[in-house]
Structure formats: C-alpha cells, structure tokens
Amino acid sequence: MSKIQVGFLMSYDYELLKKSIPPVYSKADSIFIALDKDHKTWSGKTIEIDPSFFTWLENFDTDKKITIYKDFFYDASLNPMENEVRERKMLGQKMGIGNWLIQIDSDEYFVNFKNFVKDLRNNDHYLKRPEKNQVQIAGFFINLYKYVEGGILYVDESRNQKFATNYPSYQTGRNTRKRVIYTNNLVLHECLSRTEAEIKTKFENWGHSHQVNFKSFITKWRKLDHTNYKDYQNFFYLEPEKWKNLDFVKGNSISEISDNLEYKSLMPSPLFLWKKNFGQWFKFLFK
Q: Which of 5, 81, 93, 148 could form a disulfide with 207 if both were Cys (CB 3.0 to 4.6 A apart)?
C-alpha cells in the first residue's frame, strides 16, 4: 500500500515542531524534516539551532519514523516565495511520488489527523498515474491571532488550506493549482499568536516577506486585547478584509485552547463542502 508521508520545513520557528509533530506521529508512515544545510531561511538569513532540539527529536522518535532531509534550499537568485516553492517541490520528491505527500508547517497542529488519513485513504485511486490525475486535499485553518489575558484571540471563521497532494507541482506555497478535494478537517494555525519579536522574525523570513508591511500590521496587533477586539475589523496581513472578525477563547496553552474551542461552529457544513467539491469537479472535468 502507498504510504502516508508527512513533511515539515525546519526554520526559525523550529521549536514549534515539538507541538506539530506529536499530533501526526502515530498515523504517519514516515516523517521528513527539511533543513537547509547552511541553516538559511528563504530570505537568506542564517538561523541558529539549539542542539537540544535534536536530542528531543531523537528521544521522541521511538518508532524511528523521522528523517532529517538536508539540502541547499536557499537560492540567492530567487525571491522568498520562489525559494519556498523550490523547497516544497524538493521535499515532495524526496518523500516519493506514488504516496500521499502531506506538508505541515511548524506552527500547524492537526486536531484529528486520524480522520484526515481516513479521508486520504478514501481517495487512494488518485495515487495511480498521479502526474496525469493531480489533486490536492484541503482542510481548514483556525487562525490564532494573539495571546491575551486569560486566553487567545482567533479568527472567527475557518479558512481552507491545502495539506496533501499526490503530485508536488507546487506553484505558490502548497498550492499546485490543480483540483482541490475539500475535507472536514481542522488545523490550529499558530500564525500570529507569538511575541512581537517572533512575528517580526517570521515576516522577515517567510515566503511572504516581500509582500508584508510589518509596521502597518503590528500597529493594530499591539492595540488588541480581550476587552477591545470587537471594536476592530480586518486583521489579515496581506488583504486585511479576509480576516474580518476575531473571537476569544480561554486557555494558556495549545492543549487548553483546543479543549475549549467550539469546533462545531468552526467546521464547514456538509452542504458547503459538497458545493466546493462539486465546483472543483466541474471546473476540472474537461482539463
């Protein structure tokens, strides 16, 4: 049987892998962690990695599923997004065509990876001749915005994200621009729920670094707390209106936040999924 291959990109926020790897570990056949040989980010900056992380990784990997895949992922002639796409393609090839190729970022925590694997297995027929039958399997992000007193602010509407594909022909980020199959799976995305310094590091080094205005974003981010977040709207860092409203949930850790979130209200409805999937089927019917 084809394998469930999970890939992570290791960079400036590598410590978050301690939270993103455990939820997928038991149901993954293999896990690959891509790390630039020179410890370069997509923007060409050098990161330092505490050796204790590798000790943690070795101790955690009791089933010997994890491989650290080192290569030169930074190319000075490319912009950050082009470097991101390049690394994702290289990682996808390393994981092996003919398997389900899942890519998860360090700050993404699956709520029910077992269910996601089940959805992948229901689509195993796409693993035959994958280059000619390219698909992407999507779930939905719950975007975490800012830790505040007693809990966290998060975007009150889940948004789709592509996590798996049968063929890694990425065009932007994880998007291959091929047919998408939407599934009812949620992922907590610790996108901006970091310190101001950590957000600055992220904005300077990720694939969107050449697109984001840090000053403009951080001015609003600083103002928000658990008492005033309802007074503001439009929070996304690229096109603000895409994240229209925030909500608040109690919790001082990811596990507490996950326990307290009302997932039912954030999950897409069966009708919504049916419409999205029918639209994708029809769109690619004659392509």
A: 81
Specify the pTM. Answer: 0.93
- Which CATH number goes with the domain that contains 108? 3.90.550
How do beta strands 30-36 and 66-71 pair?
parallel
Question: What pLDDT shows up at residue 76?
Answer: 96
How many domains does the structure of the chain reveal?
A: 1
Is there a domain that residue 201 lies in? no
Write the CB contacts of 122 (distance below 8 Å, at least 6 apart in sequence). none
Q: What pLDDT, on the 0 to 100 scale, is given for residue 212?
A: 72
pLDDT for 209 equals: 59
Give the domain range for residue 165: 4-193+262-283
Which parts of the chain register pLDDT below 50? none
Whole-number CA gyration radius for the chain: 19
Instruction: Give the per-residue pLDDT at 237.
Output: 84
Q: Extract the runs of DSSP E, i.e. beta strands, from 20-134.
A: 30-36, 66-71, 100-104, 108-110
108 part of a folded domain:
yes
Q: State which amino acid sits at residue 127.
A: L
Model pLDDT, residue 240: 87
- Model pLDDT, residue 215: 86
Query: Does 246 reside within a domain?
Result: no
CB-based contact 128:41 (threshold 8 Å): no
Please say whether the beta carbons of 166 and 159 come within 8 A.
Answer: no
Beta strands 151-155 and 135-148, pairing class:
antiparallel
